[in-house]
Queue: 2 jobs
Job 1
Amino acid sequence: MPNRLDRVRRQLAEHDANALLISNLPNIRWACGFTGSNGLLLVDPDEAIFVTDGRYTEQARQEVEGAEVLIAKEGLVSRLLDAGQLEGMDRVVFQADHVTVSRYQKLEEHCPEITWIPASGLLTRQVAVKEDREILQIRRAQAVTEAVFDHILDVLEPGKSEREIAAEIIYDHLRRGAEKMAFDPIVASGPNGARPHARPTDRTLQEGDLVVIDMGCILDGYASDMTRTVALGEPSAAAREGYDVVRRAQKQAIEHARAGLTGKELDALARDCIEEAGMKEFFSHGLGHGIGLEVHEWPRASYSVEDELPAGVCVTIEPGVYVPEEEYGVRIEDIVVLRSDGVDNLTSVSKELIIQ
Ligand code: ZN
Ligand code: ZN
């Protein structure tokens, strides 16, 4: 953990600043280990100060590494000010995408002598490159999701509603030790599958449906995320063809993915394959996203992203086609770690079409 604070400190020179004020909780967890729901981390060249409220007095003392802990009775910013932590500073960087307007106004009002420098995406690149132990934690979260998937196959049948299946997904994740869901699970059957971000409805599953199941949990802070599309009985010829196209596109992307590609190039590995099959207009989202302490992290693997993807990032590979006129959707999603010569796939569930 302390060496992560050193990586945070490198941002000081980049912004010619006296300190960085970290307010995004997953970043705080990454930098100093605190897992609670309220805190601020101030990092300067010599020290780091973590401030939280009285609910977390014990927890902060146990968890926080490399930073001095302050407990606030009023606001977190007020506590930093009272402790004189911002005195003598003239340039402090804050996370523009994780500070409310009211907190920003408070900083300006109480420290008019400081130039507050907004930085977007501060720490995203540092956080994106995973250490081996972090990859292990994602694998562990993914293992829970895979066990849930096995269980869901036992209960997935015509007559059950999407909502019932979603409830089972949540219950079974928690039963198997997940802290919480990483996002609301998607169970999208038949025509509902043609909406990429469908919410589970009361629709009952029908014989012949394709069912898109997208789910992930948080275990020890790290996220899992997996999509599989399952057929209930023999699907239509169009739906089966759609499945095969997505399967091929996903395989192609995983076989050729590696660090050093741009987000756009990675996306194109799958998109070209879907385009060749004449289904380009049905693949209506990017190929994937970074994942770690947050389920959606930098980098995105998408047609508009020119960022080069470094070795050691975990990204999802999740092509899909959504075809309302044929009343089906298909998505297949794995998590991979990008390496200089390929990928390690963290997902082990088969991608052959499962016909229930
Ligand atoms: Zn997903
Ligand atoms: Zn995803």
Note: The chain has two domains: 2-127, 129-355.
Job 2
Amino acid sequence: MVSPTDERTTSPPTGSPPTGSPPTGSPPAGDALQVLRRVFGYDAFRGFQQEVVEHVVAGGDALVLMPTGGGKSLCYQIPALVRDGVAIVVSPLIALMQDQVDALTAVGVRAGFLNSTQDPAQRRRVEAAYLAGELDLLYLAPEGLAVRSTLGLLERGRIALFAIDEAHCVSQWGHDFRPDYLNLSMLHERWPDVPRIALTATATRATRTEIATRLRLTEARHYVASFDRPNIQYRIVPKREPRRQLLSLLRDEHPGDAGIVYCLSRASVEKTAEFLVANGISALPYHAGLDASTRAANQQRFLREDGLVMVATIAFGMGIDKPDVRFVAHLDLPKSVEGYYQETGRAGRDGLPSTAWLAYGLQDVVQQRKMIETSEGDLAHRRNLAAHLDAMLALCETVRCRRAQLLEYFGETGVADCGNCDTCLEPPESWDGTVAAQKLLSTVYRLDRERNQRFGAGHSIDILLGKHTDKIDQHGHDALSTFGIGTELREAEWRGVVRQLLAEGLLA
Ligand code: ADP
Ligand code: ZN
């Protein structure tokens, strides 16, 4: 699955080349394969895991971009075992630290974590183990590294490497910004000789550059995998009755399967989960408004039981390693292609066929544009949000292969049509919409001249269809020259025209 192309793999470091031969005292890199087999029970490395491992074992910095499920963890876990000292893993996923540590402990790796969920006695035990060199890996939340006592503790032990997981969280304009990640640039100043490896599944060139700059990874080698997830079928449909549409998807194609349904608001998470349960589907809600113990309990059930559907806001899922998630459904338009790709990437980690399904409609676009207009932050920030939304809309409205468009967004070129997305499987009929666009735009133009009034897309469509609604009669819009000139299309088709114009930026 991970098939890096020449241009994208191991692009040479911008500064001096990484050390060719390991510094004296380092164990030979051949140990890495042994560790992979003996400890983790795998026969061979995947993709460029081996190159990354050898580079970090030898003391080099690395920036690793791999899709979700690509196998990032071993890229730092094996060097952690091969190099002397304790590997410090910075991760924002506090809720998952216990699971990660348990999984490592189960294969005989000595791991611990320090975060805000522990009581003082638990912390002291972990700290003592770290100082005694009795740990291979120590997981820390980024806020921990801002605390002086923690830094003092780290300084008294021996550090094998720093792994910065979910490194895109350092990107201020990205979709997951964590202010504490900005502090991580000091790791290099305090520990100039300790190798650092940053990992993420978010891979636009802009994010990558930002990670390298903000984390001062100027000499790091970049390892960039192909982001294709061939077993995921991408489908984007017009939203009509979203819950009913979702129910048919689950009943017809995914009966008894585990999956995630993303909604924008807490209220719609609750309603959707209730709706599914009322229709005989085992579903649980997850959002930031639930208390921590309910959230943790629902997450545990989702991970351990078979065939549960998690209805969630985007607060759910980062770092969730459940291999058999068979579908990810979005009932609302994601805010960015990055977010969409990361969320859909939680499907099918086991490589088996899975579905990424999104229902979106005009209302989504209007709502999100409004949210951007009223959002806090300066103009540059709002422009950035708008650009992300536009890219997402372009993906929704494309008549090309969705996968090709997605991969191009992440910088992969020359991708052939995939045969496993909705536009490949049922090519949308495309037609010359010039006349329709002209009719719609001139209606909007005429309405826009009534400056004290704002009208929605539905109203323009009613005018084109020549309907006598209350609003049309009240404003005398049946007198407009475009009244009734659009009866050749049905309402749903006109909505398609509006979405296309919005996606093209011809209508705002
Ligand atoms: P990521 O962090 O990139 O989302 P993980 O590190 O969690 O991915 O790995 C995804 C899955 O692939 C895990 O179940 C892991 O055990 C498995 N895996 C990783 N590397 C290998 C390998 N070389 N051989 C077999 N399985 C692997
Ligand atoms: Zn396709």
Note: Residues 1-26 have pLDDT under 50 and may be disordered.
